[in-house]
Known about the structure:
Elements: H1 2-22, E1 24-32, E2 37-38, E3 43-49, E4 53-60, E5 66-71, E6 77-84, E7 87-92, E8 99-103, E9 106-107, E10 114-124, E11 128-139, E12 146-147, E13 153-156, E14 162-170, E15 176-177, E16 181-182, E17 189-192, E18 199-210, E19 214-217, E20 225-232, E21 237-240, E22 246-252, E23 255-260, E24 272-275, H2 314-349, H3 352-380, H4 386-408
Parallel strand pairs: 1-8, 9-12, 10-20
Antiparallel strand pairs: 1-2, 1-5, 3-4, 3-6, 6-7, 10-11, 11-18, 13-17, 14-15, 14-18, 16-17, 19-24, 20-23, 21-24, 22-23
Helix pairs in contact: 2-3, 3-4
Amino acid sequence: MxxxxxxxxxxxxxxxxxxxxxxxNITGTVHNQTTDKPSIGDEVLLIRLGEGMxxxxxxKTGNDGAFTLNLRAPNERHFVRVIHQxxxxxxxxxxxxxxxxxxxxxxxxxxxxxxxxxIAQIESDGKTLKVTEMYAITNASNPPVTQSRPDNYPIAxxxxxxxxxVEVRSGKGMWVKIKPSPIAARERTxxxxxxxxPGDTLFKFVYRLPYRGRATLHLHLPYPIAKFGIVHPPSMRxxxxxxxxxxxxxxxxxxxxxxxxxxxxVGDVPAFExxxxxxxxxxxxAAAAAPPVAPAPAPGATNPAAPAHNANPANAGDQxxxxxxxxxxxxxxxxxxxxxxxxxxxxxxxPLPAAKRAAPQGGxxxxxxxxxxxxxxxxxxxxxxxEEYATTKDALNQSIQRALSRExx
Length: 409
């Protein structure tokens, strides 16, 4: 009997020892960038990615913002989710180094939210008019805070329109499908409950409305947009309802472009009319293949978001940049073509002597402006670091100021 007892004891001791060896601890710290102090008492979840998301461990940050979570399945993909003031901050696990996760305090309103680029893609099969709107909203708050409320991004639909889908992405993260909620006090308006964290947040939504060959659209912007354009198949005709509100530089990437003249646009987009039939090519600016959609959030977490903020898996990051470039890159290209075309037209109509005097300097100024626009594009799709962006922008601004000073002489 004693022998059997010893054998069983050794067996279970071996199992427990093996489990202890195989188990790993995920450690890290959470820093509140708003207060520049460790974030104390935040919920921290270890979530395993498989066919869905499964909570594997849970804990809280201590007085120094540190946490430790037990990793039971080291061969599976995981991410750590920190819930700070009701907002999720996620970071993928890569390697064994301690994690450093940044969070921000949540507020109801961040003053000065605006967008760099906005696109409305119009197409029709003859029976319905399909509209895809996409906006990149920048939160440049200082000190940095997250805007969090049920109607973070209100979507105002035209009469008789039916909302198809809403997708959102934070920074370089994955696209997340969001179910918007009707805003009771505002007719045909839906609220998107997705936190607008510091940096860029991309909103994309699709809706359809009945179509009989011609339609007038009045689009509304909840935040100011610096550069706004409408893209459509060349077979469809576009007509601005007020003169001098749009320029039409031509066709690019298989789509016609109508660029809003005013910059930035605030409130309502200048009304326009479309007619005819046509669909966007598969490689069109906003007609990229459906992006990967993140699975449902882990139980108990509010303000659902996929591993988005602070996420850094190599494959997901590369894919996210490709998707963002598919959506935004075409718009950047045709806006650049538009700017170049306008500059060439102005140069042709300038009297010859003045043209000869201004051409070299004007060409330099336009090139510097194009470089600045490209720099903003790089920042938008995450291909440049914050330090490199700040240094390069400062140098370009100084060069532009010098060029402008020379023009005034």
